[in-house]
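Hi U.,

Before I forget, here's the chain from the pilot set. I'm dumping it here mostly so it's searchable later in email.
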Amino acid sequence: MIRNCTFSFFICVFLSCSSDNSNDQETYTPIEISLEVPKLFEDKLIAPVIPVNNRLTVEGVALGRKLFFDPILSGDNSVSCATCHDPKKAFTDNLQFSEGINGRIGTRNSMPLFNLAWNFDERFAWDGKEFSLEKQAFEPVTNSKEMNNDWKTVATRLINHSEYPELFKQAFGNIPVDSNLVVKAIAQFERTLISGNAKFDKFLRGETTLTTQEQNGLDVFMQETKGDCFHCHGNPNNPLWTDNQFHNNGLDETFSDLGLGAVTGDPNDNGKFRSPSLRNLAFTSPYMHDGRFTTLDEVIDHYSEGLKNSTTIDPLMKKIDQGGVNLTTQDKADLKVFLLTLSDSDFLNNPNFQKP
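Structure:
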């Protein structure tokens, strides 16, 4: 829903003491908007996080959307944010390790982007290194394996562009174009990426029913004596389907990537990574921070009998001594079918999220 907060004000420019030589200039004010929040989210979650210094506006979101898909941010104009965060793939890229400029390969799987405005601790990325969406958008531009550019060059390109100066003026007024305005606009667009119309959402709204196998899969997910998945990944009362916290989920005995531990410097955080949302799993393979699992079957097998112990293993991995929760073949099949009910094809095809 758009909330029109437009108002006009005048700046008087005195060119001389004579009133005949003065003029009034009307200044454009961006139109403030509110997020289109699904009813389930309104009922079950607190309000989304919108910084007071970066309110959503029609002009800011439109500018952020254009920047998100524009390779102008990269060193050789070949890579955009959408290169690693494709809307047709739930804003990831389906690669084990994302590829940046000149095919340079990183060391982590690209996280999908949706429902970011409800990340209440405001820590982003697999390892929580960035505090706020705005700060998260700074690093890829200068990262040598991603966009390999510098912000001075980006600002110069945008200032000399045929369209961007006016778009920035409409979104932010007469403030010089710089990196701060770029990341603010991108963050505004990213906060509008809301996914909340999967089959399970429709089930909760009373619009459809679950099959017997899907219902059994939900039971496996929720039972501590079976899947015991809900502690980290939520439940029907948490439409985010993640706790947005950091856990060592038994992937390795030793760590080549310390995850949260590299950020905090606390060895007790080594091997901990953010719990990703279970939404849109049908579109976001491969899985885990390093993309080691190609299929959902491999993910389920990991938790069933593939857990590896280490000094920082999460206490929620209660059956680590048995290698996992030891699901039956039927339980695994049912769990997988349930997880796929959390995928939202409408999100992938939302015209507001496509390249402008």
